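Question:
Now give any protein.
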Amino acid sequence: MIKSSILPALVVVISAVIYYSDNPIISHLTSALVIIASALIIRHKTNFKS
């Protein structure tokens, strides 16, 4: 329950970091984290439905 509310907030924060970051390495790392986080959210939602 706690994770499901924290993850979307993390995605927003990480997206902001990507947007304002001038360092391409940081941008790639944070975008990878966004992909992982969104995959976890989708996985959590599908598990919750079933």
Q: What stands out?
A: The chain has one domain: 6-48.
